[in-house]
Amino acid sequence: MLFRFLKYLQPTSYFMLKRENGKSIFPRIEAVDRASALKVPEDSRYTSALAREYDRSWRLILKGYTIESDSYEHIEKLPVVDEYRFLRKNFNSAWIWYVLCLRIFSFKNPFREISAFAKARSVKRVNEHKEPIEYPGYSEFLGPLIKQRPLVSIIIPTLNRYPYLKDVLEDLEKQDYTNFEVIVVDQSEPFKKEFYDQFDLDILLIHQEEKALWLARNTAIIKSRGEYILMFDDDSRVDPAWISQHLKTLDFFDAAISSGVSISTQGAKVPDSYAHFCLSQQLDTGNAMIKKSVFKSIGLYDRQFEKQRMGDGEFGLRAYLADFKNISNPFAKRLHLKVGSGGLRQMGSWDGFRPKKWLDPRPIPSVVYLFRKYHGNSASRWALLKTVPGSIIPYRYKSSSKMMFIGGIISIILLPIVFLQVMKSWKLASKKLAEGELIEKL
Fold it and tell me: Which intervals hold domain Glycosyltransferase 2-like (predicted)?
């Protein structure tokens, strides 16, 4: 990563890792086109010329720069004061204090740290997403892909959510792009085959007795006929242009993945980055169109995540490392209802960091497995230190910084229990790592 202090705040971000070709995601400024470079003028507050250059590259990615350019292969060390300046520009002040404390408790020179922290205090936070890179040609773009009318395979695993699935399928009946099949993998009890007779859709219905989400998705991908796979959830609502916007984005950006944005009815606030196109740091299997060739190249979903969380995050990271372009698509929205019954809430762990019982592992072991597999033990520990305290607070308060702070205080009080939970999760993740990935080839 361009700035070392990000290891404390974003230790398991996709962008912390170089891709398999040895390159980072961050473009060299001299390789960027003039119009984009003008979007990020040099910040003279940095003491180092290299820090000013790295800062511009970072801001370009935040603003939505998506062009494949010559990138940084070797990242040099920057002055500590510039690291604090960078954090000041990009994160809430509470997180800057968090990093300062970590640095001091890690036996860094306290005088140097406090001096650098103080020198950066005048730097104001900047929201780069307010002035993103614009793609004016997108609205009028009529590329060849939609004209070719490729078959799209929409994949929906479902479990005991027939009332919500009815709305999902009715939304699909209203799509302005009509060359698609719907593959439903129904794990419900009781299974209601007759439910599907009411819809005017090309439905391939698969009755799966085992309650297994990633098995369901893998089975559907294997059975699919389309060259474009559209992952969907059974508790979501979408607009009539949903499919066509995904296809249009893949074509316009010459991308392999279009990650539609998900607007949740509860939980964390909607990120500012959802308002514009950018390279995505995630993959949400509730709203993502993926070229089938991606699965043929890197395999299906890892079944080590069965009945647990972040199988889609692992697949997205695998695709990133293999250099498949993944675009965050603001025009392919879905409303995620996150209903209180069925789905992962019934078959296993719905939230990755909040176990159902106090003595259950925290986080869910698959989360730690993902962190350790790709980022290593050190980065995983930083990630757990940052995420576990806030997970004490119920999910519905996730968007409240005040409640998250309270969660941190409570976690200190409950430290023995929380430590036991984390150690359980770490041990179970070690077992998964020893067993190895369970990724079937397509």
Answer: 153-276
